[in-house]
Each structure stands twice: as C-alpha cells, then as structure tokens.
Amino acid sequence: MRAIWNGTVIASSDDTVVVEGNHYFPADSVDRSLLRDSSTTSVCPWKGTASYYSLEVDGRTNTDAAWFYPTPKDAAAEIADRVAFWKGVDVTE
After folding, report:
1. What is the pTM of this model?
2. What is the chain's mean pLDDT, rounded?
3. Nearest to 79 by CA among 92, 69, 89, 66
4. Tens of pLDDT along 45-66?
5. Radius of gyration of the chain (CA)
6. Residues 6 or more apart from 85 whose CB is under 8 A from it?
7. Residues whose CB falls within 8 Å of the CB of residue 27, separated by 6 or more in sequence, listed in order
C-alpha cells in the first residue's frame, strides 16, 4: 500500500492494518521529513486519544492529514506505532 498526497509518496508498506476502513502504516514506513507536528487531538471511545500530523509537500500544507494513537487502548493494540491518513491523501496498492 502507498499513501500519496500532492504527487509525493508519504508512506509505503506491505504491512498495513485496516481498522474502520483506514490503513494504518508502520511508523517507520512514513517519510518523517514530510510530517509536521500538530497540537490537534481527538478521542475515540475504544481506540483512545489520537494525535495528528500535518503534511508539507512542495510548499503546500495539508493540516492534520495524518493521525496516530500514541498509547492506544488494549482493544486497538494492533495500531500501536502506526499512522493513518485522510483529507485527500490517496491510499492505493
């Protein structure tokens, strides 16, 4: 699977975990040079508190387009150390 935004591959891995229709990529498969920290968080009752990254590619920013669970609840342990994408990021094979 690959996550692509603004013509650039953000993440690539054959080892994604699908939860609620979202592919969670291993953190080490993500190009960290394209991530910008965000103060945004959200809470899922069964996964826990999500933190976000914005993407920056070729001078364009996609705010809060990636998320991860720093300490997922036990029910979501399979997505620990993984990152998912939305907001126009294409996730394809």
Report:
1. 0.96
2. 98
3. 69
4. 999 999 999 999 999 999 999 9
5. 12
6. 3, 5, 10, 11, 22, 23, 25, 65, 66, 91
7. 68, 81, 82, 83
